[in-house]
């Protein structure tokens, strides 16, 4: 529509004025905000933008390839994919305490990103390398970091973010989504040609599957979890609610699978199995501060459970999490 087209044109002009002939780097995560920021900045300055996509090995099934297909493939943006999964999994080995895991992932992310930024500088793409760091900060993030969050007396979970990165890197900040609410960011994303599926995706935490594998993170667990979770999400997208005509993916605010590193006994054919358990989590919420567990149809739960147990060898039991927030949190760690 016209309003959106004007808005894009205005935003593009503003970015061009701010950046001039300098270069920009942006940490692409595959999430909505960084994706929309990348698409908008790319529209404005093309190859003056380099996206850095850090794969920490804790992404969902095929997520890395999908991000590359979209940004490098379809949009023809410059994207550097850094496969840091060995580094992350190595440092996480033997660590099971949730806060410690979060801190390790956050620190490594900053380290890897910084190293990549230095590398780009040294390789002399452009004359002096990037002078801007772009971030997909949106209006609610701006309010949150100034207000409510800092008043909180206890840290329930230390959030993975890249605060402090621009100073450490000596870069200027470029935040073209700073004045926008989530809905506006989504509309902008669609107007910029990003697929609806990407723009209306449920939120995914920075530490990724690292906080959805309880206790110690192992590659074996991550691989099982990725496959189980892909089945859950696929079925949520397939099942439609008759009353509203919406899919259960759209009717839930966030839905995912959690890996429990405990084994239980089962029976498969003539044999005994002794395998891992997963929990399905689906919530409805308007602000993620409180949340209700979603009353998913039994037919959907039944389909997901039987598919996971039959298709993912190594998992023989599926449970559904019926805890609200509070007192439970949405993520298990
Ligand atoms: P909890 O588990 O605290 O989660 O009820 C509330 C929302 O925040 C997301 N979440 C994170 N997002 N980095 C993020 O970017 C993080 O470290 C992180 N931890 C939790 C969670 O997925 C939910 O949407």
TrEMBL record:
Pathway field: Purine metabolism; GMP biosynthesis; GMP from XMP (L-Gln route): step 1/1
The enzyme's E.C. designation: 6.3.5.2
Catalytic activities: XMP + L-glutamine + ATP + H2O = GMP + L-glutamate + AMP + diphosphate + 2 H(+)
A single GO cellular-component term on record: cytosol
KW Magnesium (keyword) present: no
Binding of ATP, residues: 29-35
Entry keyword annotation includes Ribosomal protein: no
UniProt keyword list: ATP-binding, Glutamine amidotransferase, GMP biosynthesis, Ligase, Nucleotide-binding, Purine biosynthesis
Gene Ontology molecular-function annotations: ATP binding; GMP synthase activity
Domain GMPS ATP-PPase stretches: 2-201
Function according to Swiss-Prot or TrEMBL: Catalyzes the synthesis of GMP from XMP.
Subunit structure: Homodimer.
Name of protein: GMP synthase [glutamine-hydrolyzing]
Species of the source: Diaphorobacter nitroreducens
Gene: guaA
């Amino acid at each position: 529509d016209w309003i959106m087209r004007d808005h894009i044109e205005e935003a593009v002009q503003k970015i061009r004025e701010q950046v001039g002939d300098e270069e920009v780097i942006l940490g692409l995560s595959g999430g909505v905000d960084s994706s929309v920021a990348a698409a908008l900045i790319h529209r404005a300055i093309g190859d003056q933008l380099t996206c850095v996509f850090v794969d920490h090995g804790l992404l969902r099934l095929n997520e890395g390839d999908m991000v590359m297909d979209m940004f490098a493939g379809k949009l023809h943006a410059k994207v550097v994919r850094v496969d840091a999964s060995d580094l992350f999994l190595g440092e996480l080995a033997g660590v099971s305490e949730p806060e410690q895991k979060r801190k390790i992932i956050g620190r490594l992310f900053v380290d890897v990103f910084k190293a990549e930024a230095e590398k780009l500088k040294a390789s002399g793409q452009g004359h002096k390398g990037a002078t801007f760091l772009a971030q997909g900060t949106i209006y609610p993030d701006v309010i949150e970091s100034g207000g409510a969050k800092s008043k909180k007396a206890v840290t329930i979970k230390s959030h993975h973010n890249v605060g402090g990165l621009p100073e450490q890197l000596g870069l200027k900040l470029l935040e073209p989504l700073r004045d926008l609410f989530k809905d506006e960011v989504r509309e902008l994303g669609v107007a910029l040609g990003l697929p609806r599926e990407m723009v209306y995706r449920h939120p995914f935490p920075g530490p990724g599957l690292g906080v959805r594998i309880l206790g110690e993170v192992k590659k074996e667990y991550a691989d099982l979890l990725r496959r189980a979770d892909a089945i859950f999400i696929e079925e949520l997208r397939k099942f439609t609610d008759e009353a509203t005509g919406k899919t259960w993916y759209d009717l839930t605010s966030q839905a995912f699978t959690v890996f429990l590193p405990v084994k239980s006994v089962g029976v498969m054919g003539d044999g005994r199995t002794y395998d891992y358990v997963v929990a399905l989590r689906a919530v409805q919420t308007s602000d993620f501060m409180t949340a209700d567990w979603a009353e998913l149809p039994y037919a959907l739960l039944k389909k997901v459970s039987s598919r996971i147990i039959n298709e993912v060898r190594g998992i023989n039991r599926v449970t559904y999490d019926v805890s609200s927030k509070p007192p439970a949190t949405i993520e298990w760690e």
